[in-house]
Design a protein that fits this description.
alpha+beta; two-stranded parallel sheet; two-stranded antiparallel ribbon; flat
């Protein structure tokens, strides 16, 4: 009897339903850990208004998901998650796309220990004869 009931149900089409990937992600439920981090972050930013401009929030790779990005963007910060030591980074593909087959997304692999000069940026600024790092 259970078999007949299963056949009677309307069959779904295989694969992801249309529009399920493009959800409106305004509502975020924060776990207690992110609530604590958000409170500390807002208290810290309230103490240093105008003294130092903070643009980035660096957290462990455990926090590399949407709710953490939402917390950072609420305070106009960019999230920098720590990468795993075996993470592979690639340049965007530059070149002619093939006529047939999939379009290429990834270009040359980035060697983290041998970065090109164009990608290196200094984090030091000169302020009245002293170097701030």
């Amino acid at each position: 009897m259970a078999r007949k009931a299963a056949r009677a149900k309307k069959k779904r089409r295989p694969g992801r339903s249309k529009g399920s990937k493009n959800l409106h992600r305004q509502r975020v439920s924060l776990n207690p850990e992110l609530q604590r981090i958000q409170g500390m972050l807002q208290a810290f930013l309230a103490r240093i208004p105008g003294a130092v401009r903070i643009a980035y929030l660096a957290l462990d790779g455990h926090f590399g998901h949407y709710p953490t990005v939402w917390v950072a963007r609420q305070d106009n910060l960019y999230l920098i998650p720590k990468l795993r030591r075996d993470a592979a980074l690639y340049e965007p593909f530059q070149g002619q796309q093939p006529r047939h087959g999939p379009h290429r997304k990834y270009g040359q692999k980035v060697g983290v220990h041998h970065m090109p000069e164009k990608d290196l940026k200094s984090n030091q600024t000169e302020d009245a004869g002293r170097t701030l790092i």
